[in-house]
């Protein structure tokens, strides 16, 4: 499901807390950040979405700290 233009949400069944996702992946010239959260209780889905969003922004921040030249708005 797409949320807010550039965010996509994937809800998974049979997904565990032990599942590992790699941060800020690059495929050809497409770069994207990942934030994932796990909740046992379906009633906490909003909390999981919030936590995943926070982790995605942290991943994105880390990427731009490593690659400041890639940040939009910087002209070189």
Binned strand content:
5-15%
Given as residue ranges, the uncertain stretches (5+ residues, pLDDT < 50) are none
The average pLDDT is: 76
- Summed up, the domain count is 1
Span of the ends, CA to CA: 36 Å
Extended strand count: 4
- CA gyration radius, whole angstroms: 14 Å
Biggest sheet: strand arrangement: 1-2
Query: Helix share of residues?
Result: 25-40%
- Give the helix tally: 1
Give a verbal description of the structure.
This protein has 76 residues and is of the alpha+beta class. It has one domain (2-70). Helices cover 29% and strands 13% of the residues. The protein has one helix and four strands, in the order ββββα. It has one helix spanning 45-66; strands spanning 2-3, 7-8, 25-27, 30-32. It has a two-stranded antiparallel ribbon. Strand 3 and strand 4 form a beta hairpin. The longest helix has 22 residues, at 45-66.
Entry summary:
Helix content is 29%, strand content 13%.
What structural keywords apply?
4 strands; elongated; 1 helix; two-stranded antiparallel sheet; 29% helix; 76 residues; alpha+beta; single chain
Which helices and strands appear, and what pairs or packs with what?
Blueprint lengths: L1 E2 L3 E2 L16 E3 L2 E3 L12 H22 L10
Antiparallel strand pairs: 1-2, 3-4
């Amino acid at each position: 499901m797409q949320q807010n233009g550039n965010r996509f949400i994937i809800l998974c069944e049979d997904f565990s807390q032990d599942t590992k996702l790699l941060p800020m992946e690059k495929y050809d010239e497409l770069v994207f950040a990942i934030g994932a959260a796990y909740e046992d209780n379906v009633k906490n889905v909003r909390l999981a979405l919030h936590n995943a969003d926070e982790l995605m922004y942290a991943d994105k921040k880390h990427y731009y700290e490593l690659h400041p030249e890639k940040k939009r708005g910087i002209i070189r």
